[in-house]
Amino acid sequence: MNGRVFQALRDDRAATARALLIARCAIALYLVELVGNLTRPRLLPDEPALSIFYKLPSDLARMPGLPGSLDRLLSMPRAVFWSVLAGIVAGVLIQVYVAVTRQPDRRAAVLTWVTLGLLLLPFGLIPLMVLVEYFPVTLACLPSTAFVLLLLRAGVRFARVPLAALLAAFGWGALIVFGLGRAYTGLAFATISGHLGGGPIVTPGGDIGGDPVADLGQFTRNQFRTIDLVIVHLGVVNALVIAAGVLLLLLFRYRVTDAVTGLTLGAAVGLGYSFVESILFIKIYGSLGSFFGTTGGFEYWIRQSIGLLGGQVAFGALLGAGLALAARARRRTAVAAAALVASAGGATAAETLSGWLSSRLGGRVETGSTLDTLAVSPLLWLLPQLPFIALVVVLLVLGLRGRGPVLRAATAAEAATGLQAVTRAEEPVLVSPALRFWTVVRTGRRYGRRAALRLHRLQTAQLELISRRVQEDPDLEPQGDELRARVLRLKGMRAEAGS
To answer: Given pLDDT bands bounded at 50, 70 and 90, which one contains residue 442?
Structure first.
C-alpha cells in the first residue's frame, strides 16, 4: 500500500511542485544566511571568512575537561558544508535539464524528487554525525523516544496516522529540522555577534590601543544579547522547517481528516528534533559539567523523562494542528500565521523564561540537591510551556470529539454502498474503539493470535477507507477503489482463518 501511495505522490504535479517550492525556500534562506555571514564585521583575531570554519585556539582546546571533539561539536563540518553546496549545484543542474529537455511528466516528477533529496539531505549529515559520534547516548535515548512514537500512534483511536507517515515525520524532524536549524543558526550566531560587537576585540599585547579589559567586558555583554537573538532566530527557523515537513506530509491527502492528524504529525516531527537535541545536550553537559554546573544524567532526566512530551514535541503538535485547521479554514493565511507565531514564540519563551525563573530563584534551593533535581528544575523548565501544552490537550480532546460524528457518517455511507467493504453488521464495531478492541481479543482467544492479527489488519484497512471518504475529493477516487479492493482481499484472508 505504501508503494502505491508514493507512486501517487510521484505522479501528483501539485505535490512535486509544492515539495520543490519548499526546498527552494529552504535553500534561499540558507544562502541569505551565508551571504550575511560572509559580509559580517570581524571581531576575533584570525577569524575566517566563514565563521563555521573557526577553530578554537590551541591553548583553549587544551583546557582540562574539554572533549577532543569540541571543535566538531561547535562548528559545521567542512565535509557537510561542501556536500550542501554540491547538492545545490546538482539540484539546479537537474532542474535546468528538465526544463530544457521537456521530460515526460512521470520522469520529470522523479527528477524533481531527486532534486529535493539533493537539496535537503546533505543537511541531514549534521545530525547523523551526532548520532554516530555519540552512539552510546543515542542508544540510551532510543527506548523513551520509541515509547512516545508508539504513544502517538496508539493515541488516536479512530483512523490512526499510518506508521510510515509517523516515521517520515520523525525522520524529517531528526534529520532536516535539526540539520537546517543547526546550519542556519551556526551562521546567524557569528553574523549577529559581528554586528553587535562594536568593532574588533582588543587583546593584551596587541597593536590596537585602548583598555582591553573594558573592551572585553563590552564584548561579553554583547554576547549575551547575541544569545538572546539567536534563541529567537532558532525558534522561528525551527517553526518554519517543522511547518514545511508537516505540509509535505499532508500530501498523504486521503489519510488527513482533521486537526488531530496534523497534531500527531507535528508532534512526531518535534520528537525527531528533540531526539537529536537531547543526545547533543546530554553529551555537552556530560563533558562540560564542571563549567555549566549540571551533568549528562540530569539532562537525560529533564529531556528524556519528565519533559519528554514538552519542548519541541508540544510546539510541533501545536503547529501541526494549526496548519491542519488552516487547510480547512476560510482565512488560511491568518490561521497558519497564528500557529507559526504560537509555536515559535512558545519555543523562545520556554528557553528564555525558564532561565530567568532560575536566576530569580537564586540560591534559595541548593543546585544539584534532590529537591532541585526532582522538582524545582523540572518545574522551572516546564512552567513556561504549560499554557501551550494545555492548548495542545484541548485541541486533541476537541478534535477527537469532533471527528467521531464525521467518521460515523462516513462509515454509514460506505456501508450503504453495498460493496461489502463495510457491512451493516460491522458498522457499530468500527465506530467504537472499545468494541474493536474486544472483538480482536475475543477472536484471539477463540481462533488464535494469527486470526486476531488478520482481523486487526482488516479493521485498520477499513478505517483507512472510511478516512478517505471524509476527504470528499474526486481526485482520490482511484485510491478509494484500491483501498476497497484491499479490504475485500483481507476479508478473504479472515474467512480462511475462521473456517
So the answer is: very high
